[in-house]
Amino acid sequence: MRRSRRRSIAIWTVLIAFTFWTVIPIGLVVLNSFKRAKDIFTPTPTLFFTPTLDNYVNAFTKASFGLYYVNSVIVALVSTVIVIVIGTFAAYALTSFRLRSANTIANAFFLGKLVPTISMLLPLFVLINGIGLRGTLIGPIIAHIALNLPFVVWLMMGFLRDVPHELQQAAIIDGCTRMQTFWKVLFPLILPGVAAAFVLSMQYSWNELLFSLQLTNLDTYTLPVGIAGFVGAISVDWGLSSAAATATMVPLIIVGFFVQKHLAAGTTGGAVKG
Asked: Considering only CA atoms, which of 212, 213, 157, 214 is closest in space to residue 186?
């Protein structure tokens, strides 16, 4: 009993410490977004201050943050939807059709996940610049598709392999086509995996900085690039950057809240089945 109690206390201590480690920085950013500069730079941090919305107003009116927001929504949604569609059907083909090279292709996708993303910057930059798409939203969309696709294929293959093959055979015997079998039989079963892949892919695309910085210009900057612009060589506008960071967190929190049930099952299932 004593050993079990000590173990429980140790586990709860670690969980509480990790929660504080995660929540406190986010809380400070949110608080700073409602503070004036004089309140941010006080010698002793305080939780009691007169809140203001000036930082949010300046971010969306004077700093072109609204344009960066729209650009990020377009890049993240388009790249994520394309990745989910292509990745799910690619995983379906690799797990359902009898292809001699299926395992080789699957291993190639897995190796693509292991390649450091920084090593892909130069070839993608040369390719996108060569076809005249640098400075457009299509450039980062292509880059994010290339970066997220191996992960989605690898994740969805884990879920599709766990579905009994007899279900597909029974549906085909009953007269369903391959597409009807996928939508009516398989898709409801792999929905948690699709939700997990959607949120994780969108999160990466939403927060990605390096490729977006190199492949866009002033009119096509995404949110991470725009927020990085608030950091000057001499000073940092903490209020403006905190407001921008807080507004950037909101969409992913909303998406995660609505799909949290599927997301929890998807991430856990993918870790075991993949």
From this structure: 157
The pTM (predicted TM-score) of the whole model is 0.80
Class of domain 55-273: mainly alpha
Mind listing the pLDDT tens digit for each residue in 111-156?
777 778 888 888 889 999 999 999 899 999 999 998 899 889 888 8
